[in-house]
């Protein structure tokens, strides 16, 4: 990569760290950023080890702050989605997947902005809804590490406390990323070159985790959910624009 490529890669890795530090939606911009200088497939392969390394910091930070019921409803569907992504890897059109994810996230963000949930009772975890959105999240996470928008559609209306929300999200995607290592290796996306680049990018990734945790502890619950919603809107627009 040239200098511009390394700059984008460092920003993308830092965004991954911020996501693992609790600012979940920020990480969705990582693959689109690196796709400006390389193929989305190579970008996803380079970033997966960075995600896994950042997950370690997130797991340590949120080891006591997560919701087991939410994880129980969403993880099985996500594992099925990863398996589906692996089985159909040779048929995947990155632009189509990006467009679907972008439209879903955009619609949800607009609904949250114009029909805010304040005053509404929080939804309860549901195996049916969790399995559906988990499947979609696992599939899009496998394809381009963009599983956050479908996950947010399910998790945000549950109105968890910010720390519990961030911890549940971190653990959910830590499980997904660990499982994805197997098919990524089988598909040749964890080459020595990609791993060497990923090793360098782990430094800004860890720094991002620390910064994310610092910011999360200083946000109010209301600001936190507004931040998540507007981040989802902007990222979704970016995904739609890239696909079109």
Architecture overview:
The chain is mainly alpha-helical. Helices cover 76% and strands 0% of the residues. The protein contains ten helices and no strands.
List keywords for this structure.
244 residues; mainly alpha
Mean pLDDT score: 83
Shape: globular
Low-confidence stretches: none
Helix content: over 70%
Element-level helix/strand string: HHHHHHHHHH
Tally of helical runs: 10
Strand proportion, as a percent range, falls in under 5%
Largest sheet: none
Q: Radius of gyration, Cα only, in angstroms?
A: 16 Å
Separation of the first and last Cα atoms: 26 Å
User: What structural class do you assign from the helix and strand content?
Assistant: mainly alpha
According to DSSP, the number of beta strands is: 0
Summary?
With 244 residues, this protein is mainly alpha-helical. It is built from 10 helices and no strands.
Helix-strand blueprint:
Blueprint: H1 3-20, H2 30-34, H3 40-61, H4 68-87, H5 94-114, H6 127-144, H7 148-155, H8 162-186, H9 192-216, H10 221-243
Helix pairs in contact: 1-3, 1-9, 3-8, 3-9, 4-6, 4-8, 5-7, 5-10, 6-7
